[in-house]
Amino acid sequence: MQVNVQQFLGVGYSTSIAEQQRWEPSKARDRLSKEIEKIGPIAPQLPSFNPVSMSPHKSLRQNEECLNLNISTPMRNEKLPVMVWIHGGGFQSGSASLPEYDGKKLASAANVVVVSINYRLACLGFLRLCDISHGVIPSTGNEGLGDQITALNWIQNNIHHFGGDKNNITLFGESAGAMSIASLLASPVANKLFHKAILQSGAGHTYSSVEKANKVADEFINSANQLGFTLEQLPSLNSDALLSIQAHFLARPDVYQKFGILPFTPVIESQLLPQPPHEAIAQGKAKHITLMAGTNTDEWTYFAALLQQNMASKTALNDSISQLVDANDIDKCLTQIDEQLNGRNRPINYQNQLSEMYREFWFTEPCHRLLDNQIKAGGRAFRYKLGRRSPIEQFGCTHAADIGFVFDITDAHFHGQEPRVSQLVNEIQTSWAAFAHNGSPATAESPWPSYDENLCFMMFDHEQSYLAEHSLNVIDFWSRVSDQKLASF
């Protein structure tokens, strides 16, 4: 049943982060903001490119005073479950205020309060400068994560004004948003502030050690020096100057060779994130939180297009695989991924083989370990896969395809126009709503056992949805890869 939904936009959840305080921890506001009628500013960021639409993302108003959130609520005379969306974007870009994250339809269909939050990004949110500056600049590299925690504290104190139940809060997020949620699960400061979590295309193996974060900081300052800036100037530079340094830093090939494609990530440090998420979850630190997590069947094709990858030879393919898999296992790996490509009727070529391998390594295996660790530690967990392919052949069911189904904001060019598209919107929203209300995505029409029962998961496939089981052969093969290796994204 569709219900009327009221929206409150640009609600400030933190005290001021003025320029001289740009790397200070955020702090929840004591009272409601009056700025609740228009979209608030988003975190300063570089222009980002969408390989699906082949165009830059539309830019919203940017300002360092970006710590605001948006609320979509049915405003009934009852306490409703709250779903808090944490956006993705590689910890470098994105916003809670993008049109594709409009919570109005989800709030209506699911009968929940939907909250989406903005947080500091990249050099303002995930750059550790406290060590390299000998404490003069206070940033630990977890300012963005701290902002998310501040927002959760604000929600605990204020969501009842908007019809929400502070005792029934579900986090949900995609990509870096899901990776953020994994860090929040592991944070003793955060994981008493919510009760359930849905991790879409992201898990618990994305983080930086202090050593790595300090090396990133060294190279960031190297870029600053090359542009004529010094470390001491960083607190007083305007946002545009900081972003110019960030652009220089991210344009250097050696940065990706040293740090992978995500140089800005949450940092393992004593204040907010004392240990890697996968370790904390395995030790039962989040067993009181019910989890649901999943991946798409062709995650890497998005990044292949973004990076303009075109694997042209068997030698180049083997070289790429050998960086992640032992040399003795390359042939076995290729045999396995060929079987998977055949099973989904995807053409077997060098690029598709690489994309399949990266999908397993960076997304599927971390997702499995997240849920498996949670169950073994005594918690509850559910799993899904999405397989609805785009009409654009090169993408298949790529990264971020799930977002349109969750928010009921699909694109005919990318998602298609067949009845299956609207059917998937209904199925996914119904399951996400059931999880938010009851702690299980199962519905009367769609039984969905927990992941500990024969490693069973819901497959939202191209033509129909059904229960499937994770292959023991696949689990056996990828179990040889260390957690440390999986954390090298």
Shape annotation: globular
CATH class categorisation of the largest domain = Alpha Beta
Structural class: alpha/beta
Q: What is the CA-atom radius of gyration, in angstroms?
A: 21 Å
The CATH superfamily name of the largest domain is: Alpha/Beta hydrolase fold, catalytic domain
- How many angstroms does the end-to-end distance come to? 42 Å
Give your account of this protein's structure:
With 489 residues, the protein is of the alpha/beta class. The chain has two domains: 6-210 and 263-286, Rossmann fold; 294-486, Alpha/Beta hydrolase fold, catalytic domain (Rossmann fold, 3-Layer(aba) Sandwich), CATH 3.40.50. The chain has helices spanning 104-110, 122-125, 143-158, 176-186, 210-226, 239-250, 253-259, 277-282, 300-306, 314-322, 330-343, 350-376, 401-407, 412-415, 419-438, 472-478, 483-486, and strands at residues 6-12, 49-50, 55-56, 68-73, 80-86, 113-117, 164-174, 196-200, 290-296, 381-386, 456-460, 465-469. It has a ten-stranded mixed beta sheet with strand order 1-4-6-5-7-8-9-10-11-12, sandwiched between helices. It has a two-stranded antiparallel ribbon with strand order 2-3. Helix 10 packs parallel to helix 12 (350-376). The longest helix is centred in the C-terminal third of the chain and has 27 residues, at 350-376. The radius of gyration is 21 Å and the shape is globular.
